[in-house]
Write a structure and sequence with these properties.
By secondary structure, the protein is mainly β. The chain folds into three domains: 27-104, Nuclear Transport Factor 2, Chain: A; 107-234 and 300-309 and 426-435, Roll (Nuclear Transport Factor 2, Chain: A), CATH 3.10.450.40; 248-293 and 312-420 and 445-467 and 493-629, Distorted Sandwich (Beta-galactosidase, Chain A, domain 5). The chain has helices at 27-40, 59-63, 114-126, 128-135, 313-317, 495-498, 544-548, 582-585, and strands at 47-54, 74-81, 87-93, 98-104, 145-150, 166-173, 189-194, 199-205, 246-249, 252-255, 258-265, 269-279, 282-298, 310-312, 337-344, 350-359, 361-372, 376-393, 396-405, 410-418, 423-424, 434-438, 441-444, 446-456, 464-472, 485-491, 509-518, 524-530, 556-560, 597-607, 617-629. 42% of the residues are buried. It binds copper (II) ion (CU). Copper (II) ion (CU) is lined by residues 416, 446, 448, 605, 607.
Length: 649
């Protein structure tokens, strides 16, 4: 990753060593990983590198690191032989130029890659059987056909293909060269493909909507018939004439009292490390590492066109691989600093996503205010520092924003936009599992479950998570009007306690408490996870979809920290049968009291599709908060000065 303005740390300039042990792998380190494995482990050109990432050093090592200390760098690769299908996990010492381990992983399928996605599309469009079958439907210009490759769970893979690296495809059609393929589904036409052999296994030509509806799925202005763009929008500029008030030094970001490091990998995309708040000279840790660890998107339509659609956008595809470059004035507005990201293709060759991460300082309306009848008004503007990135997962966009506020709050916001998957239907055909969004066109219901992995570290040392619930009193002699409200806090002592569901009727929240550190009132300091954007899975316990993604069966899971436990549905979710992550780790019901805890928070969008979500979806927003609760003795933003020039103090 490189900073646009600061000195590159691990960069595509070929710097082999890093400035900080948590800096993501640089271009030369990706190349070196692949070269070492080719030289020493028998990896050939017939292999693919599905994933290469930094082996993050242990927390103690990172905590004890000082600038200029020597750094030992290790990388981890998942690679596979396309001919045998054998999968290996390799750990490589970049410092020693050697292979540390190279372990066979029987019976798993690594994540999919962008190379395979593009190669599938090209291979199928050239396949004579596909050309012939589509010609029967009157589709003859293969340049306008787009085969969108999807993975699926083992339970839907035909018996004869089990064990192979198998994908299925949707077929879409552009009406002209630059039009939206997702506007025109070729319903009932799917291919099954062995991605290792890049071989078409079979064509499912199950039904055809012969009489195409008169629908309009274009969003680019020149393709929308009769569109008159608005002319009543005046310029809105955001300027900081004296520059930004944050500092980006390599990948370390400091702003007002906040300090954090920005990381990046193929799977989680952006990762935030070592988040701390400087409380009047005291550097107080809040979280060791926060990221998104999985995203599960089950489509809730059992029809043949949609039943296989159970995407694991993080475990199967990778938010890092799907991250796109951002553009000033469009994706981000104001005085922006960017970080580039470096990733690799399936040959291990590095490439750079320029402006992958955008860092603006943003106005956020009012921070605090009071108008006194004698003294007048005191008002402060709120500002936040946002670290954001955008990912495009085929038809969908996810926009990720982590914001740090002056009152110690951390906010995670995700916006979903892009194009909904649609199907055409025959006249009068019922639509039980979706919404009509255009003429004889429906968008199936689906859910986007995101799993945030929150490796908290509130004030250092051990943390305990408490469930807090509000309860209204019954009428009694002491409270004849039944007006009292009490708060009940229950410590979650073991992983079984740590499996939690949201409860609206008690306004349940979860507090990450440090009982070894008290505030001025003598109360243990805490950060509260304010659960918004949460909804139940609504999947039958016997559903094979839920078996693969048991994490979505609860709002929150809490585990003791383990460096190995990173992927809540397992590392290899592609073609998985069962969730090999959280349900397996938590079987031992370990203690989660007064220890290094990790919270797995499940939130997202229960997407009941709307006509207004097409042909391109206005951003749907969802968020949650990590809010200080007695972490400070009072409002920590009392010291924020009034805005200069515009309002009086
Ligand atoms: Cu959606």
């Amino acid at each position: 990753m490189t900073t646009q303005e600061a000195t590159p740390t691990t960069s595509d300039k070929g710097t082999p060593s890093s400035a900080h042990p948590l800096d993501p792998l640089g271009a030369e380190e990706f190349r070196q990983t692949a070269a070492i494995l080719r030289r020493d482990a028998g990896v050939t050109d017939r292999w693919r590198f599905a994933a290469i990432e930094l082996v993050e050093p242990g927390k103690d090592l990172v905590a004890g690191f000082s600038a200029g200390d020597p750094i030992t760098r290790h990388s981890r690769a998942v690679c596979f032989d396309r001919d045998s299908g054998d999968v290996y996990i390799a750990v490589v010492s970049l410092t020693e130029d050697s292979v540390i381990s190279f372990d066979h992983q029987p019976g798993v399928q690594p994540n999919m890659t962008l190379d395979e996605w593009h190669e599938c599309d090209a291979a199928l469009r050239e396949d004579p059987r596909v050309i012939e079958a589509l010609a029967k439907r009157g589709i003859t210009d293969m340049d306008k056909v787009f085969m969108d490759t999807w993975t699926f769970g083992d339970f839907l893979i035909p018996e004869k293909y089990k064990g192979r690296r198998v994908c299925w495809t949707d077929t879409w059609l552009r009406t002209q060269e630059d039009s939206n393929p997702y506007a025109n589904p070729v319903n009932g036409f799917h291919c099954l493909i062995d991605v290792n052999a890049m071989e078409l296994l079979e064509i499912e030509d199950s039904f055809e909507i012969k009489d195409k509806p008169d629908s309009m799925g274009e969003y680019a202005p020149h393709l929308v018939p009769g569109l008159q763009q608005r002319t009543d929008i005046t310029p809105l500029e955001i300027t900081q004439p004296e520059g930004v008030s944050f500092t980006l030094n390599g990948n370390e970001l400091t702003w007002q009292n906040w300090r954090l490091r920005v990381g990046f990998n193929y799977r989680e995309g952006m990762v935030l490390h070592r988040i701390s708040y400087n409380d009047q000279g005291r550097e107080r840790p809040v979280a060791d590492r926060i990221s998104f660890a999985e995203m599960v998107v089950p489509y809730r339509d059992p029809s043949i066109d949609h039943v296989r659609r159970t995407a694991f956008d993080i475990g199967e595809w990778g938010l890092g691989f799907m991250t796109t470059s951002l553009e000033l004035g469009c994706d981000c507005l104001g005085e922006i600093r960017y970080l580039d990201a470096v990733l690799h293709d399936t040959a291990g060759e590095p490439y750079t996503i320029t402006n992958a991460i955008c860092i603006p300082e943003e106005d956020d309306r009012v921070l605090w205010k009071h108008v006194d009848s004698v003294a007048g008004a005191e008002v402060r503007r709120s500002r936040r520092l946002t670290v954001s990135c955008h990912v495009t997962v085929a038809n969908y966009e996810y926009l990720v924003y982590w914001s740090f506020y002056q009152d110690g709050t951390i906010e995670c916001e995700v916006r979903a936009t892009g194009i909904m998957v649609v199907s055409h239907i025959d006249e009068g055909q019922p639509v039980p599992h979706g919404t009509l969004v255009d003429q004889r066109t429906y968008a199936p219901f689906h859910q986007h479950f995101l799993v945030a992995r929150l490796d908290m570290n509130v004030d250092g040392g051990g943390n305990t998570v408490y469930m807090t619930e509000s309860r209204g009193a019954s009428v009694s002699d002491a409270d004849p009007y039944g007006i009292g409200l009490v708060l009940e806090s229950t410590p979650l002592k073991s992983e079984a306690d740590g499996r939690q569901d949201y409860r609206w009727e008690t306004q349940r929240t979860w507090k990450v408490v440090n009982e070894n550190s008290v505030n001025a009132m003598g109360t243990p300091v805490a950060y509260t996870l304010v659960p918004t954007g949460t909804f139940p899975a609504m999947l039958d316990p016997d559903s094979p979809v839920l078996k693969r993604s048991q994490v979505i069966g609860h709002t929150l899971w809490v585990t003791p920290y383990s460096a190995e436990e990173r992927w809540p549905c397992g590392e290899f979710v592609n073609q998985s049968i069962e969730d090999e992550g959280l349900p397996v780790w938590t079987k031992g019901n370990r203690s989660i009291e007064n220890t290094d805890v990790v919270l797995w928070y499940v939130f997202g969008i229960h997407h009941i599709t709307r006509p207004e979500d097409g042909p391109v979806m206005p951003s749907d927003k969802v968020s949650f908060l990590l809010k200080p609760f007695g972490f400070f003795d009072r409002n920590p933003a009392l010291d924020v000065p009034a805005s200069g020039g515009h309002c009086h103090s």
